[in-house]
Write a structure and sequence with these properties.
225 residues; alpha+beta
Length: 225
Amino acid sequence: MTAATDTEPTRHPVFQTLWCATDLGPHRPCGGTYQWYDADTLPPLDPARFDGGFGWLGGTGPLVPESARHLDAVAAELADAGIVLPAEFIAFQTGADSARALDAVSATACWTDVSSPIPSPVEPGAFLVRFLRDQQDCVHWYLYLRPTGDAFVVASPLDLEDAPGWDEPATPVDWFGSIARCASSFEEFAYRFWVENRLWCALHGYGDETVDGELAGYLAHYEQA
């Protein structure tokens, strides 16, 4: 597996909106294992379906106590900084039917790894919580949390746990590499990741997935382009 280093987003503290993913067969080529796609080229999603219940997944299932204890600890750390961990993120990561749902469909062997809060290297007072990473750390996905209550998902080719703090002036601002905003909410990210990885398997003949129903509707966006 190789990272698509020639397609990383621009290094700038103002996030671009890009989607980091692999190919969708001939409908959306990829220059490596991953590529950064302009958000305007993606199939539009209906925000009304993202109500925190994850109905498209069949719900989150019963609570997993061990996961709940870990998320409680993360939430407590963020609370000390005046930041609230979104309820939808907690529900997904602590549900027996949802916590490993992204791992199960990942075409590139990504796996769930919920970190402790990470101070943002580009914005004072903001924090990140990594929740998903590529098997070879080519890409990391984080929940980005602002004191204002904003919460969205960003992707980076770097493990930002190693990033310097915002208050370390000796470190160049661009040390952290690239951070791109890739979804307006965690549920939106989870849905697109879930659909695209299942679609990849269907297009490449892996497993029992077929290009019909919801997957066909998603792919139609590229066929009509």
